[in-house]
Amino acid sequence: MKKITLLLLCSIGLTANAQVQTLTLKDAVNYALVNKADAKKAKLDIENNNYQIEEIRSRALPQISANGSLIYNPVLQTNVLDGAMFGQPGQSIQVAFGQKWTSGAGVSLSQTLFDQSVFTGLRAAQTTREFYQLNNQLTEEQVIERVATSYYNVYVLRERLTLIDSNYANTAKVRNIVKGQFDNGLAKKIDLDRIVVKMYNIDTDREQVRNQVQLQENALKFYMGMPIETKIEIPRTQFEVSPQVLAEAPNTANRSEYLLMKKQEELLEFQKTAVEAEYYPTLSLVAGYNFLGQGPEVPLFAKPADGVYWSDYSSVGLNLKVPIFTGFGTRARVRQADVDIRRQQEDIKDTQLSLDLEYINAKTQIENNIITIKNQKENMILAENILKNTKNNYLQGLASLTDLLDAQTANIEAENNYTRAILAYKIAEITLIKTKGELKTLTN
């Protein structure tokens, strides 16, 4: 029984370890592009667009259909005819036309010869395909941006948790020193109580940050499309600061957002052209070949000996439709389409300004954060030295417990400020990479 239990525990342990994944930023981004629902749906839109194009093309191809009918006439319609036709002038005779049973079968064909809306749809097909490809590209960039931002947030929170753990351990050492002094009558009870209270506060902060880490990790997994129960590890080497090259502003016309809106403008132009096509005539070829069976019995499988006769007939023709007056409805729809185009053009201008602003802001944040990181790093080193000296002075009786606790608090604050400065830099870095249209480089 013990062996079975041991094997079971080992199996559970191996399963748990198998679920732990070490994620670099590249791993996280590539995983999201394969598994996140947004990325999958964008690819499905491309696939669906191919079927939409096939549907448009079908309107230019022959339309062939078969038809059949079987009709029973319980009461035949009668017409009144002049009796002279039957050698009875001056009299009216009622004559029933048709048979009790009528059956028909045939095939019909229709081929569009000229329809401006069909031709417009065919020309718009390529633009529509490019639109969905750009939409897929933009969706992937949005997925990358969300994953990268969340990834760095998880890293910073984990760093804060590490700092809190280290601070708790150092405070515990101070508590042991103060307790030893108190036991030997060299420290007051209030000093020991202050240390204990500080440890409780640190432990409370640690639990809060641990909860924040879990929530942010869950958010990262959601943005990646990864099962929430999966355990992840993030290498520390992924959080190094590498200053970006701040060159001239990138060309907005290369951004996916801008290109997508320009494609939308093209599609709106085609939409307007499709409405204007209602002014043009349409011409189509129609043809049909049919069989007609009539008789007092069900015509199916019956013969002339049963009073049932079959005959065939066919037709070929042209259908021409020339619009003359539509109550100004077409003109109104054309003008509405034109307004949609002008509205889109205004959105494009606004988007271009927004993208330029995004770059300028990202560039400014990068420059400011580089200075902030340098200052906070120097401040952190200084705070560490002050804490170290204050601790030595406290042990030698040259500094008070208050000085030591204040130095610890200042050191923790300096370390947190440094990690927050790095996070602000990395987020600004993502935005800058985005403004250059280079988010896909994070997948390499």
What attributes characterize this protein structure?
8 helices, four-stranded antiparallel sheet, alpha+beta, 62% helix, disordered N terminus, Outer membrane efflux proteins (OEP), 444 residues
Topology:
Blueprint: H1 2-18, E1 20-22, H2 25-35, H3 37-58, E2 63-72, E3 78-82, E4 92-96, E5 101-114, H4 116-183, H5 189-224, E6 231-233, H6 256-276, E7 282-295, E8 309-321, H7 329-395, H8 401-435
Parallel strand pairs: 1-6
Antiparallel strand pairs: 2-5, 3-4, 5-7, 7-8
Helix pairs in contact: 2-4, 3-4, 4-5, 4-6, 4-8, 6-7, 7-8
Structure description:
The chain is α+β, with helices and mostly antiparallel strands and 444 residues long. The protein has two domains: 18-59 and 115-280 and 328-443, Up-down Bundle (Outer membrane efflux proteins (OEP)), CATH 1.20.1600.10; 65-112 and 282-322. Helices cover 62% and strands 15% of the residues. It has eight helices and eight strands. It has helices at 2-18, 25-35, 37-58, 116-183, 189-224, 256-276, 329-395, 401-435, and strands at residues 20-22, 63-72, 78-82, 92-96, 101-114, 231-233, 282-295, 309-321. Strands 2-5-7-8 form a four-stranded antiparallel β-sheet. It has a two-stranded parallel sheet with strand order 1-6. A two-stranded antiparallel sheet has the order 3-4. It is elongated and about 150 Å long. Mean pLDDT is 87; it is low at 1-17. Belongs to the outer membrane factor (OMF) (TC 1.B.17) family. It is found in: Cell outer membrane. Keywords: Cell outer membrane, Membrane, Signal, Transmembrane, Transmembrane beta strand, Transport.
